[in-house]
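Title: Prediction job returns without error message
Component: structure pipeline
Severity: low
Priority: P3
Assignee: unassigned

Description:
Job completed but the reporter wants confirmation the result is attached to the right record. Sequence as submitted:
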Amino acid sequence: MAETVVYRRDGRIGLIGLNRPEKLNAINGQLIADYHAALDEFTRDEEARVGILYGEGRAFCVGMDLSPDGGYVRADAAEDRTHIEELAKGWLRLWDCPKPIIAQVHGYCFAGGTQLPVCCDVVAVAEETRLGWPKMPVGAGWISPMWSFLVGTQRAKLMSYQVGSTITGREAYEWGYAGLVFPQDRLAEEVRKIAENMAKLPSDMLRIKKYANNRVLEGQGFRTAVLAGAEWDAVAHTTRTVADARGWIKEHTLKGAIAKFAREGM
């Protein structure tokens, strides 16, 4: 089976690629396992000073795989909460990694896929990218609290309260979700230049700078918000709304359910 997350090093730069392009890098169990393996390899690689997290194909990541085989929601609420918390801890590995990581975001970046860049050190986005929320109400209380640290509470709520809401890469930059924005055709080149410049600094100093800066958001409750999202999302999964949404997906397929919601709401 091909790895759904790949790692390679080029000079001082470690490249971590989400590699499920046929599914727009939707997150399933295999991708999560491969993500941990790739991040372990990058962390252990003494020659790699700076990482770039990117997506192969047309998208960075469209979020959790909601197909019947995706395995995102667990039937038992306690098990569901534990499963989501493990995901949250996994995303926080980007935050806790001793090396800086730049998220290079292009194409589409939706739902849970938007959480990965939040946990990186710097987000670089293509102007043409579409970023946004799930197109069906299949969860709640995990994505918007994470976004609020970057874009503010009101903008996070505006996105959260409107199912399927999206913004462009340019808007993501203007809101503060991303620190860098480039045209699509220059994104990889410009991100590489910045990573190379960062990598001129030895790893010990980069590590100290990263931890010092992260401590600021830690003091504001960032880690607590990420982990607390597991409880809120597990609670949301027990609601009638989510049960109905999952029923629609099963009956009409995800694409059909999205079209039905767009026409009628719930």
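Comment from assignee: result matches the submitted record. Strands lie at 5-10, 13-18, 50-55, 101-105, 108-110, 122-126, 130-132, 166-168, 180-182.
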